[in-house]
Amino acid sequence: MKTADYEKCASRIAEALQLESGEQVLLKLDPRIFSGIVAPLQNVIRASGAHISGVILAEDTTGSSDAELACLRKAFNDADVFIWLPELHQGSRPALAKALVEWLDARRGRAVHFHWQSGSYPIGFAGLPSPDFIDRLYLAALDVSPAELETRHQKAIPVLRSGPIRVTTPEGTDITFEVGERPFCSQIGDATRARMQLARTRIDRDIELPAGVLRVAPIETSANGAVFLPVWRPVFTEGHNLFLRFINGHVAIQGANADKIDEELSAAGGDARMFREFALGFNPALKVLSEAPFIGYYGYGSGVVRLSLGDNEEMGGANRGGGVHWNFLHNATVIAGDRTVVREGNLLL
Q: What is the pTM of this model?
């Protein structure tokens, strides 16, 4: 990453937010990585007439206290905007996670997530490409405009509502579920105040950059069928050649190390074993490439499907507790009603 690249990242964050004079910005950053963005981000914030009201440093800890929570609540109550920059280990300690959720649910502010390298995942047993290669793709993904993504999402939503959704892969995935009237989260990279007026769920106020995914919490108990995963790493255990078999939204797992993964889900508690989410990527710059296959930015690439287990309160679902357990399908076919939306990883809409 060169200075100009960091400046581009900072400008895209500012463009997404359209900061207004007098707005207060709270930053979360990790000085160990991606530090080159800090100076240009400070510059674009000041140029807008807004100012940085506080900085939260990343900490690799699960420690928390009532005093810390009270302090963080005050920091958020004074903020209009929260910008979450890349971290060595992306995540939030309990007090910070709670303060952020309370702030978003109170509809007081808007947030930009700019996690960068933490959103890259290998496919199967293949390794990730070089960091430089991933950086180039992500920088290109920032250039895809909100208007372009919005057009594609608005075409897709009525199709995905038109009937049961069926997801299949050549390896054996075959699962169906229904969206019903559940709200879609359209992540197009627009974090403006005007866009926030349309927010229906918590994640509508949490804007990701790069953008591109369309997310929904389907009717959980409508999920029936199987998802095949050559490799799955939900928390600690690596499972191989797994089938996640769903009956009325509840999952049972078969395959190598399935028993250990099942123990992890039991330990997570809550709705860790419930079908959680259907997400479909639309960003053409993050499409899986045959010459360097990997999942870019949490599955936001064109034609990538993300299915997951666990808590889905943030997007208007019924599951509570159990954490979030993602998996990705890069070569899926998606049919909604009688319309083919994706064919073997290629988005058709």
A: 0.94
